[in-house]
Amino acid sequence: MSATIITPFAEHETRVSRAPSSKALLRVENVSKSFGANTALHPVSLEIGRGEVVAIVGRSGSGKSTLLRLVAGLEKPSSGRILIEDEPLGAGINPRARLMFQDAALLPWLSVLENVLLATPRGPDRRPIAREALEHVGLGAREREWPLVLSGGQRQRVALARALASAAELILFDEPLGALDALTRLEMQNLIERLWLESRFSAVLVTHDVEEAVTLADRVLVMEGGKLTFETAVELERPRTRSGRAFIGLKEKVLAEVMRS
Amino acid sequence: MFLSLWQLASSLGWLPPRVLPSPLSVCQAGWHLTQTGELPLHLFESFRRALLGFAIGGGLGFFLGLINGLSRLSYRLLDSSLQMVRNVPHLALIPLVILWFGIGESAKLFLIVLGVFFPVYLNTAHGVRSVEPRLVEMGRSYGLSRFDLLRKVILPGALPSILIGVRYALGITWLTLIVAETIASDNGIGYMTMNARDFLQTDVMLLGILLYALLGKLADTLTRLLERYLLRWNPAYRTA
């Protein structure tokens, strides 16, 4: 975060989100974050409904990852509060949200299945749940292997299975496909969409890939300089194709917003 | 090849037995001492000393390394004093150690403990500190308890480095053992070797030296096997 991004104006709240469903799963109220003299995030408010996928698009250093880390409970907000189903987030990790990173962050000394088990809630049917999650991402046959022998896309699929098996209500994607090649990225987008259609999880997707955002999200927000500057709903049929006129029009519109700033 | 040349040179009288006895006579000496029960006794004593000293020194090193790797505060408080002690060659302390502990068993153990402590301590602290922060963050975000975080993320992550410390420490154990047993002892391979020197039994001396080499190699092989098993997830260790 460079100093030039900080606006000279008084900090004011940017409210660009509306509640899409009657009861919001996640509510972010006037949350800001500063690291020393640098303001990474100006007061931001947004709501995410149950089963909704919201994408936040922006350049590097726009504060989008900071927002995600705040929601995950990995950082404490400098001001404002975060509520899950009207309950304020406690001091530690948000237990109802799971973060998925750009690198899969698998433990290399645990097998694929053990990595998924790490996130599965304790109970008698732990193993079946973990196996099923692996089955869903198409890696059921490779549960005994070490993560280091898998390809980047496969590792990311294991991370996805881990997030799914964790019974989290909210999955936070932090540029999950950023490190993959273009073809694998398309495959993964289709997989995430298919999984969403099956289980309707709620998700926040932080990305700088506008096409990815429009493909996966119900709502796309643009973040710039620590503020939400633009919002649009994506009312397209699922599963989505990337070729329709409506899709391309929306993509261009969001891209223009990102490039404008 | 090397052995047969050596035997040939001895048999032809090129190598006087006082300088280097033939391998055959070394074997005979070994057999003789085994039958009298002397060799097994010395071996056992040396082995016991090495194991005990290694366990105490390694345990202490591991424990302090873990604490100093995890806690900035403890690192700042303890590390510079420990580094100062580390720079003293532990064998240089022999006169002082004899003064403190006399020439009994505890003096020898103390030297081994001191020698083993530092490689294990340094490598454990380094290993713990260099565990990938992303993995620790992942563990935290998946709600692992502090104990689980230590057991499932930090310790396995630090293991490659810890094992390097262990292998290094094993080498030092043997080295210290030789020196400690030659100074003041009434058993152990070092004593046997020194005793043989006094009676000019070059074959027994050589036997002692060879035994040290063998035991050292054995310990190293065992740790290598352990390494290969524990780090089997890493392709770099699987074939090495």
Shape of chain B: elongated
Element pattern of chain A in H and E: EEEEHEEEHHHEHEHEEH
State the share of residues found in helices of chain A, binned by percent.
Answer: 25-40%
Under CATH, the homologous superfamily of the largest domain in chain A reads: P-loop containing nucleotide triphosphate hydrolases
Radius of gyration of CA atoms of chain B, rounded to a whole number: 22 Å
What is the largest interface, and how many residues per chain? A-B, 22 and 20 residues
Q: Which spans of chain B of ≥5 residues are poorly predicted at pLDDT below 50?
A: none
Question: How many domains comprise the coordinates of chain A?
Answer: 2
**DSSP helical segment count of chain B:** 11
Fold-level CATH name of the largest domain in chain A: Rossmann fold
Largest sheet of chain A: 6 strands, mixed
Q: In what order do the strands lie side by side in the largest sheet of chain A?
A: 7-8-9-4-10-11
- Which percent range fits the helix content of chain B? over 70%
Oligomer: heterodimer
Rounded radius of gyration of chain A (Å): 18 Å
Describe the structure.
- The complex is a heterodimer of chains A (261) and B (240).
- By secondary structure, chain A is of the alpha/beta class.
- Chain A has two domains: 3-96 and 169-260, Rossmann fold; 104-168, no CATH class.
- Chain A contains seven helices and eleven strands.
- A six-stranded mixed β-sheet of chain A has the order 7-8-9-4-10-11, with helices on both faces.
- Chain B is an all-alpha fold.
- Chain B has a domain at 46-131 and 160-231.
- In chain B, helix 2 crosses helix 10, helix 3 runs antiparallel to helix 8 (146-183) and helix 8 (146-183) runs antiparallel to helix 10.
- The two termini of chain B are 26 Å apart.
- The interface between A and B is medium-sized, with 22 and 20 residues.
